[in-house]
Predict the structure.
Amino acid sequence: MSLTMERVKTKLGPADLKEGMTATKVKRFIGDYGIIILFVVILVFLAAVAPNFLTLNNIVNVVRQSSIIGLIALGMTFIMITAGIDLSVGSIVGLAGMTFALLAPASGGAFWLPLVAGLAVGLLVGFLSAALVVWGAILPFLATLATMAIARTAVLVMTDGQVVSGLSGPAEWLGSGFIGPVPVPVIIFLIAAIICEFVLSRTKFGSHVYAVGGNEESAKKVGISTGRVLFTVYLIGGVTAALGGLVLTARLDGAAPVAGTGYELQVIAAVVIGGTSLFGGVGTIRGTVIGVLLLGVVMNGMNLMGVSSYFQQGVQGIILVLAVLLNRWKSD
Amino acid sequence: MGMRRSIAAAFAMMAAGALTLTGCAGSSNATSSGGTGKTYNIGVVVLDLQDPDLAHMTDAMKKTADEKGVKLNITDSKKDVGSELNQVEDLLTRQVDAVIMQPLDGDASQNAAKRVIAANIPLFILSTEFAEGSDVGYKSYIGVDDTVAGEMQADYLNKALPEGGNIVFAAGVYGASWTDRRKNGFDSKINKNFKIVAEFQAKGSRDDAKRNMEDTLQRFGAGQIDAVVANNDEMAIGAASAIADAGRTAEFKAVVGVDGTEPAMQDIKAGTMSATVRQDSAGQGVKAVEVVTDFLNGGNVENRYTLPFTLITKDNLSEFLK
């Protein structure tokens, strides 16, 4: 890497032009695949030092743990590509999960009803954020800071701050079940990721998302309804966060009013590590999936090695900084 | 453009800070009724109203206050020493007749407590304590000794597993007095033939405890762990659920929590947890309101009211489970 840097710095005559072009290529390669390289390096390192890391059991475990943050991160990727942000996702996790937990015992045979209600609640909070951002022209950071507080208050009021526990039946399957060797939460995450990848990279709407984030004014000039695009991404964010909340509640066989607190920061970190720019216009679902898995693997590896909880957050922070530096170097 | 963005971001950050710090000084009924006698206003500072157990406690306090004819101004420190101090200052400005405080931190919360005393307002401490040897001049302490909860967990394990064994320890929040006292109590009483093979901080949350326990189960195979000890019930439930998902419930001879919550008792009934140490939070809250009302009406109060913990296992579960 240092070698290529030197080559870029030493600018000489036209004879070196070819050299410079290879350097750019190498740089682009590292830029494009840097996070994957980092991921592989971490995997190899953990496989070597962390006992039981590279067992099928543990791999299933890590991916299952990551699937909740992963689901939320999918919607966040759309939002962040438009240069927005959604701080309310953690509260949506709590609100959707609590709605699900409260309705689950009462719904009798209709297993889908509490699930649909949970998703609807996520959609509602997403709608509120979108309305503030698009119609109210409020900065996404502030608009979603408000919806974050409002949604959390709603959860607390719903149950007077109490935990709702004991869902049983189909809910247990949603959180802890398997289809073949694959846990149900992982399947949900995979399907959602594939759909999001398709929408973002293969549809007209997807290209509009990038256009709005890249330059909203130009997007307007070429006839894109930027308001509609922005509105849609916050709705997507609300639904994926609610889906994460449903899986979390099913997994824990209950909902706590504080569930999901702080998730927004983990999710934003994962999306940024995956290469999405906070300033919009750049990012992929593929990258986000890798960002999520990378953070999940690191936390799991530290637990397997018996690293004290004191250090774990710090290590996450270091990885975040590395990823941001990598992205900046790429775009220089 | 970049400049404008960063200015906007700075404002946003400030707004975020302001929103979390000032918080809601949620009062139940602030105005004092005129007319015949004076209605006493009692300020209450609870460390975290989002905690289910404490929400339960404040409900019980409100009920008792209604019966006693006093008014409570209940405020929330939100687990932050800064906002705890803000809440105390607000209460002093409103000139309440007494303050019931549940200190967040054994040391850092003393500053806020001393403000109350400097303002000549009687101070009562509820449920959590200041660090040992501190000189805060409160009128009385109403609560439990968290150290005892840890000791009771240790006693239970010593009896259940006289041959000792390997323990996984789920700690709450390092530095918080409830975590430290429970942990110290446990460490002081547990037999030498036990060994803590893994310890993680799960912040009192079921979610964090389950994730950490899943990893710990990957790390240790069958027969390498004998028991799980958690600083509260939510974490014990999370760990128990990870163990059950892995189909390894039979390997564990004990999974022990603290608090005695309803879901924990359901787990004991189902056999995924083995014991919890019940603290009667509602009882503490009720007692605190009674003591303060007595004091304001000119009665004598003792310096310390400690309510007992109760060990709940399968044997006496029926007495507590509704």
